[in-house]
């Protein structure tokens, strides 16, 4: 295992003054599973390739196990990488594909003195000698990797005789057989169908338990990020938006981009107003005063927040449907509903619902033409009066508790809490 450090890393491409990756700073601990996630073009794969040494660093430094590797060749960084397209040799068997890196790299062993102690050079580095792995050593390592990934029965086959999931396991086997310090994975599941992706996610979780090494994993799929990562790095246009555990980025998004990117369906956003009350603060939405939690009130008081327009965010699963209207309920008109098995996704029109543009600000055109919100509600126990309104496209009445509300600045899109 090894820790990985990225400090002030930038990546520029010729003739483009805007960096593809901008001021990237991250400390990855030994054995940690880090996921880079974001939309296409956000710089996540570029960052991974800079760690691997496949892309030059324009500015900053990358260190592996405390050693700066900016000018070190990829083959000498003791990392292994799994690519999106498997990158298997079609003319080789599965066994030979896995064994290939062992045959090429060889083994480094320390040079010992007569007393059996390691010898160091003038710079204090241990003197090593290289030798090739023996056939027996290669066979033991290949068989061990095959057992770990449950592909022993496929060792004599060639890649064309394997399914997509089996090919990906072979690619992973070729990477882990060397027992690298850092394991890099660049969207390894994106070429698989939905069922295989689910299966391979579970297998990667099991693999992580068996292979004690540091993982850096790139994906555009938030489900993969949430299920696999110890921490998630969310990126947009080359800039880190937030770093945190899956729970942290889901429950406490740093801005509107993170709030809407993490979670499916995405968070509902409403144009509201922050107002002062005798107890502290509340949010006014469509004439209804919504009490805020004690924790949010404390943070707003610490900021000495003024009354102003805000964007109120609530996730679809946190909206409660009520049987009848009251002075505490909000009203929306059902547009369509989607049957998702154990739950319904109810799409409704609400006057104060808004969308955002890519720059984290409200989208005026969407506010005018797409005043839509979505509610996730379980089918089991759904009152018949509510079910009838949903079926007939009638009105629904809804509330949400103070603990599930997220407040964002109307101009910057940054979280207020």
Helix-strand layout with pairing:
Elements: E1 4-11, E2 21-28, E3 33-37, H1 44-52, E4 59-64, E5 67-68, E6 79-82, H2 94-105, E7 107-110, E8 128-131, H3 135-149, H4 164-176, E9 182-186, H5 194-210, E10 214-219, H6 222-228, E11 231-236, E12 239-244, H7 246-251, H8 256-261, E13 268-276, E14 281-285, E15 288-291, H9 294-303, E16 308-314, E17 320-322, E18 330-339, E19 343-349, E20 353-354, H10 364-369, E21 372-378, H11 384-392, E22 395-399, E23 406-409
Parallel strand pairs: 3-10, 3-11, 6-9, 9-10
Antiparallel strand pairs: 1-2, 1-4, 4-5, 7-8, 11-12, 13-14, 13-16, 13-20, 14-15, 16-23, 17-22, 18-19, 18-22, 19-21
Helix pairs in contact: 2-3, 2-4, 3-4
Largest sheet: 6 strands, mixed
Approximate shape: elongated
Which percent band covers the strand fraction? 25-35%
Strand order of the largest sheet: 6-9-10-3-11-12
The separation of the N and C termini measures 36 Å
Structure class = alpha+beta
Helix content, binned percent? 25-40%
CATH architecture of the largest domain, by name, is: 3-Layer(aba) Sandwich
Averaged pLDDT, please?
A: 90
Residue ranges: pLDDT <50 for 5 or more in a row?
A: 359-364
Q: Tell me the Rg in angstroms.
A: 26 Å
Can you tell me the CATH class of the largest domain? Alpha Beta
Query: For the record, what is the CATH homologous superfamily label of the largest domain?
Result: P-loop containing nucleotide triphosphate hydrolases
């Amino acid at each position: 295992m090894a820790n990985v450090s990225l400090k002030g890393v930038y990546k520029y491409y010729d003739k483009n003054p805007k960096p593809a990756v901008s001021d990237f700073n991250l400390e990855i601990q030994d054995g940690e599973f880090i996921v880079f996630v974001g939309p296409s073009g956000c710089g996540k794969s570029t960052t991974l390739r800079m760690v691997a040494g496949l892309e030059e660093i324009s500015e900053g430094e990358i260190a592996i196990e405390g050693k700066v590797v900016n000018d070190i060749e990829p083959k000498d960084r003791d990392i292994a990488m799994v690519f999106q397209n498997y990158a298997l040799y079609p003319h080789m068997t599965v066994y030979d594909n896995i064994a290939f890196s062992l045959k090429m790299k060889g083994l480094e062993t320390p040079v010992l003195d007569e007393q059996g102690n390691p010898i160091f050079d003038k710079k204090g580095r241990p003197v090593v000698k290289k030798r090739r792995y023996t056939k027996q050593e290669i066979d033991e390592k290949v068989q061990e990797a095959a057992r770990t990934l449950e592909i022993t029965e496929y060792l004599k086959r060639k890649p064309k005789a394997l399914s997509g999931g089996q090919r990906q396991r072979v690619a992973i086997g070729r990477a882990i057989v060397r027992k690298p310090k850092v394991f890099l994975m660049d969207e390894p599941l994106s070429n698989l169908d939905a069922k295989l992706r689910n299966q391979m996610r579970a297998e990667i979780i099991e693999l992580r338990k068996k292979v004690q090494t540091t993982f850096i994993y790139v994906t555009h799929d938030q489900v993969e990020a949430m299920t696999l990562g110890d921490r998630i790095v969310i990126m947009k246009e080359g800039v880190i938006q937030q770093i945190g555990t899956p729970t942290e980025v889901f429950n406490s998004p740093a801005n509107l981009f993170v709030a809407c990117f993490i979670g499916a369906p995405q968070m509902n956003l409403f144009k509201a107003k922050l107002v002062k009350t005798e107890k502290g603060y509340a949010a006014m939405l469509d004439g209804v005063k919504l009490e805020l939690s004690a924790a949010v009130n404390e943070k707003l008081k610490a900021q000495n927040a003024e009354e102003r327009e805000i964007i109120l965010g609530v996730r679809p699963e946190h909206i409660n449907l009520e049987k009848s209207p009251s002075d505490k309920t909000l009203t929306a008109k059902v547009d369509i509903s989607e049957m998702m098995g154990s739950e319904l996704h109810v799409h409704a029109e609400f006057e104060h619902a808004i969308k955002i543009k890519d720059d984290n600000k409200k989208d005026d055109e969407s506010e005018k033409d797409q005043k839509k919100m979505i509610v996730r509600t379980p089918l089991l126990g759904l009152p018949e009066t509510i079910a009838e309104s949903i079926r007939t496209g009638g009105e629904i009445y809804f509330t949400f508790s103070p603990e599930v509300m997220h407040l964002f600045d109307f101009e910057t899109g940054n979280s207020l809490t």
